[in-house]
Amino acid sequence: MPRRDDIASILLIGSGPIVIGQACEFDYSGTQACRVLRDDGYRVVLVNSNPATIMTDPDFADATYVEPLRLDVLEAVIARERPDALLPTLGGQTALNLAMELVEAGVLEEYGVELIGADAEAIATAEDRGRFKEAMQEIGLSVPLSGIAHTMDEARRVIDGIGLPVVIRPAYILGGRGTGMAATTAGFETVAAAGLEASPISEILIEKSIAGWKEYELEVMRDVADNCVVICSIENLDPMGVHTGDSITVAPAQTLSDVEYQEMRDAAFACLRRVGVETGGSNVQFAVHPETGEQVIIEMNPRVSRSSALASKATGFPIAKIAAKLAVGYTLDEIPNDITEKTPAAFEPTIDYVVTKVPRWAFEKFPGTSGVLGTSMQSVGEVMAIGRTFPESLQKGMRSLENGRLGLNGDPAEAVLDEMGDDALLAAAAVPTPGRVTQLEALLRRGVPLEVVHEATKVDPWFLDQILSISEERLHLEDLGLDAMGRGDWRRAKRLGFADAQLAYIWGREADEVRVAREAAGVRPTYKTVDTCGAEFAAETPYHYSAWEDEDEVRPSDRPKVMILGSGPNRIGQGIEFDYCCVHASFALRDAGFETIMVNCNPETVSTDYDTSDRLYFEPLTAEDVANVIDAEQPVGVIVSLGGQTPLNLASTLPPDLIAGTSPHSIDLAEDREQWNALCAEMRISQPPGGTAVDTAGALAIAGDIGYPVLVRPSYVLGGRGMEIVYDDAQMMRAMAELSGFGSLGIEGGLSAERPVLVDRFLEDATEVDVDAIRDHTGEVVIGAVMEHVEEAGVHSGDSACVIPPPHLSAAVVGRIEDHTRTIAAALDVRGPINVQYAVKGDEVYVIEANPRASRTVPFVAKATGVPLAKVASRVMMGATLAGLRAEGLLRERVAGDHVAVKEAVLPFDRFPEADPVLGPEMRSTGEVMGIDMTTGLAFTKSQISAGGALPDSGTVFMSLADRDKAVGLEAARGLVDLGLEIVATSGTADHLVANGVPVSTVVAKLGEDGTDAVELIRSGAVQMVVNSPRGRGPRADGEHIRAAAGAEGIPLLTTANAALAAARGLADWRRFPLAVRTLQEYHEGVVAVPEGALP
Q: How far is CA 38 from the centre of its chain?
């Protein structure tokens, strides 16, 4: 059927900020949908709150609203835009839930908006656990024994019927949030209550546990003519009991018989039809009994999912793009396959390689968490690797993670496992944790029988046998030694995934020696093409992965090539913002006539879409793998300064003349503390006093000279990893012990003379400022923006809200900051982007650090100012001048308008209830949102709504402030009281407020004292917002309990007085002015006229 002509404009809802369970895979799917729908002639309206996405670039939709994803805001957009249809299946769970809210509120009916892709009935059938169970049983599919509950009493009655152990699954949730397993009555009470709380409709499915069964997923598609195809089958290495987002997964499924696969395929299609997903992609999850082969259906997502991104990248089949076309009436047989250009989308993909996805976690960022994996997702990112065998792709995946592992074994991290006895190691492997796969390998290498390992862990014997092949090869290589390696030995080791660095460790040699010996034996990688069809048809799209075979499929080309190194797996400190920069570089350089080559290993991103760059290499970002691609492609330049720390860490291993932009020497100059100090002295730019230390004695000596408090941080890390504010000698000794220990930082490199610890005087009560700028080879500098942080210095810039333009800095201070930035960029001879961080105290400006690379604020600055910084920076790195780019029209002047933009961090503490949700110098946010409006207050309030902490407009605020915060806290309290909110406070804070004329309705007891304490008050529902700033030193137990209670109750929590003040001002503006929504395109034209009477 041809496209629908009865609809002209389509509304897409994005997935909002990156959170655990919903990452940048929805930027990838949303971007694809925007492109394909516009190409088909539809007007596309997009609403998304995340500025770091490609989809919110003004080029991708006709009307782009960077606004909070909330019912009232969406209604305002619909009233303004009057779209004909809403496509809700490409924005994750967020878009699906909002679509249901719009249906239930009658908004879609009122404005005549049709749901396409999946209607309300289909969404409800799939998402409502009770309806889904009934629907599946109706069509004869087995589901685990289960019952539905909406209250704890109902839940207890269900348990009486089915018994323990059970799995609790809330309805309408994302990433398994609120899901849990219970084997005891006490455990059941806790998990069931949490599940009811997590479900927006207070509904849980209580299911007889099938932990230990094998878990599978099928990615399926259906069109309006009822054609159905399986795009990809995926198998979990971990048995049931671990969320699929936290499990190592493999495509295609490895251990199903053909009969079992056909049964699963038929069941998935029957499910799709019964649920009523008329068109588009869905993900159906199954469990299979390991002995009997009995199959049960677990759940289905009637939308594009995290697994859809993996399946798309694994097969080369663009699920989101096809789903968007199916939603507007096309059928699968009418849509051509981009990669072959000869086959239609109705052909099921066939793959002749193995794809492995390995999750990446960040437990080290959240002290107090157990690190045990369960049915609620906790990973923050993932990598994907392609190999001709499972062992090869598993080892490539392990070395892609950038967590210090070189593969499955053969690296310094295995020493920890070597110290454990067999029984202890077996007991550890029986508990699912991030380290489980390496524990399995260590057990098998020691000769523990495969059957024993299987019995303890329930990991399928096939996977264990494949891991054993890696262990056996490692033992064989140890015996053989480097000098005895023949060509056949090299090829076998490489086909089992061993990296040169692993072999070097096994043999006690240098990686360079191993590489030279391997190449001398004539063993080099060849590159194969992802072609969707098992080589049955020629592939037109150069999407490559490495193999160790005879035939190479890389096509020659005579255009000048630029290689862009991506940012690897998402993690805290390095996320989608850097992928955004890499994608922009690819677009800009392709337009400038270069052939662009992307190297990355993250399946969730736009950068690894096969049509983002001219060529895509899905490879680990390691020195060996990158050098191999350089040998194959011979680029004229390699861009390392847009992908965060990952490519920068590789810069020193690459030929210096190939590095585009700022030289590695300049990058080192900014990172090396002594050289940097000397440079600042030469430039006469103040910096906080400090020094470098390689041991505790050195650190204590520096602190003795400059005085406490000090900021302690390792060099060459991103996201404030290991940073701490230290107030005394005892704390310093503890901090240094942690840094030199074999924690996660130890794995990443630890302390050494090359990577010392920086100890600087910490400037209390200073305002932190960020600047993004670009300098070209002629010396001209363009300042992207000066951003003022809401939280004071000491909170990592990635976790602080920041504002453009700066609301509280004088013009003179801003001028001085811009001058310093130009001076620093010139002194470092920057050719491309630079980010400089300052602390402003009074009128004094101190430089904290300079990073001659793209920063995580680049996308936010571009959205706020209308200047495409990343595109400009990439062209400058390849030799263009700013003047030339102005003449071309790529570099435009900053928007002349009165709007204010606020970036706010989104924190994952709801996933880690054991961790203290206080902000500090180590970054912990997973993503960001942007609020944009005509006053700082309105923009800040929008940012809070988008970040999930909507500020209360009535009720009670609990305040407990450290002494240093009481002055600012007083101003915040006044503002809140003026708005009609009540204040309750702890005794010290209450005394200060009352003494200064602010009424306090209740003085709250300290924990353990007589009277109602703060935790009880919060749990009782009497408090609508918590303002609790931690005291700098001494016991922090009270504060931790208070903050944990706020997190558990889902109450907005502000941990700095400055944030409380911004909240008070924001609420005042929010009350004064009606809700207004505007497109980014309008803001970039320049919106003038501040509403009358607005606060600054």
A: 27
